[in-house]
């Protein structure tokens, strides 16, 4: 999921015009930010947890229940709805990031967007709960992507504004853990509320609202009304914000490419999971659902272990790049094991190893991103939005590319899953190798 999210400078009087903040050299890590206290860390972690409870629960269970109610036997509608929703961050992330960067208010730059996104998110949950048709249900999900996605993006951009280098790994690790546990908690809650559509959506939503409001109410953000606004916005200048000069910010560009390659491999690995397991275990697809659910539950623990362990160790050792490479390689090892697995034990072991690699990569690469983020003081939201393309483009294109590998050498309706999973492994390892080109971070 990715739309663009503080520690702006103190308010200034209207005249003379404020002097724009001095940026560190392009691509360099900002080592001047002061350490944040434990209150900020825990509140931003639980705020992200709340957003994931509210936002991911519909994907995990609530939307499927409503689709079944409104269009029995048309499970494919769920794919159409979620696919359409994925276009929202793809199209709007940098735009909303720019608007967040340019917000001038007594509440600061990020908090208005967190609160506004939460309001839209709650409205979206009501729309989905009461939707009389599939079309309205889909519109509700588009609103959810806009609302909760905006809130989450500004929470992440807040970490870009606030966190010094030595705290980025641990916060990214804790956030990764919260994001893994959030959907599990949401599904458990929703499982007992399926008899009421409103409660099914609004109870998880209430958790999100409570924790986001807690963060915005307790964590102060400086008045941004005195900050320089910059050039006037027009359609042309807004369109230009979707692009940047890679040579000007080479370390950010290498990080973007490494993330793109990793998530492309991840998409190849996960898109056809049910069919892959059915093929390897020689059972109908319907019979692997429970197995995948159990494996997914254990996988959450492996992902969380990778996120917390990788994040904390990268801070303690003051190293990012080796951990990103290790995470990509661990995932690649798991994917290869799955590709050649002769039976369940190796297949399951490979899946859990992949989960470990996912957690470690997500946490440490997020910290590395914050280390190399350009124009941190003036355009963090914009560049966080551009980073979102590195995950949304692979997630959107991967399912269309994967069948090309599945068809290689296949005959009689068979699928070449071995090749697909080998390509997935190659992509994630290459993603880890690419970040070694970064010069400003160890």
From TrEMBL:
UniProt keywords, alphabetically: Membrane, Transmembrane, Transmembrane helix
Segments for region (Disordered): 1-31
Intracellular or extracellular location(s): Cell membrane
Keyword Transit peptide included in the entry's annotation: no
Residue span, Major facilitator superfamily (MFS) profile domain: 43-442
Keyword Transmembrane helix assigned: yes
Bilayer disposition of the protein: Multi-pass membrane protein
Biased composition (Pro residues): 11-27
Chain ranges passing through the membrane: 40-65, 77-99, 119-144, 198-219, 256-277, 289-311, 323-341, 347-370, 382-406, 418-436
InterPro entries: MFS, MFS_dom, MFS_trans_sf
Name this protein carries in UniProt: MFS transporter
Organism, as annotated: Dactylosporangium vinaceum
Lineage of producing organism: Bacteria, Bacillati, Actinomycetota, Actinomycetes, Micromonosporales
